[in-house]
Amino acid sequence: NRRAADYARFRAEAERRGAWWGAWPETERNGSLPGSALDDDRARYHLFAQWVAAEQLSEAAGRASAGGLILDLPIGVNGAGYDVWRERNSFAPEVAAGAPPDAFWSQGQDWGAPPPHPHGAREARYRYHDEVFRTLFRYAAVARIDHVIGLHRLYWVPRGASPKDGVYVRYRAEEWYALLSIAANEAGAVVAGEDLGTVPGYVRPAMKAHGLLRTYVAQREAGTAGLPEPPAESVAALNTHDMPTWAGFWRGADVPLREELGLIDHAEAERILETRRGVRGALPASLPGLVADPDGEDPRASLEASLERLAASKAAIVMASLGDLLLESDPQNVPGTGPERLNWRRRYPWTLEELQQRPEVAATLERIDRVRRQRGAGET
Question: In angstroms, rounded to a whole number, what is the distance separating the alpha carbons of residues 322 and 245?
Answer without folding.
Answer: 10
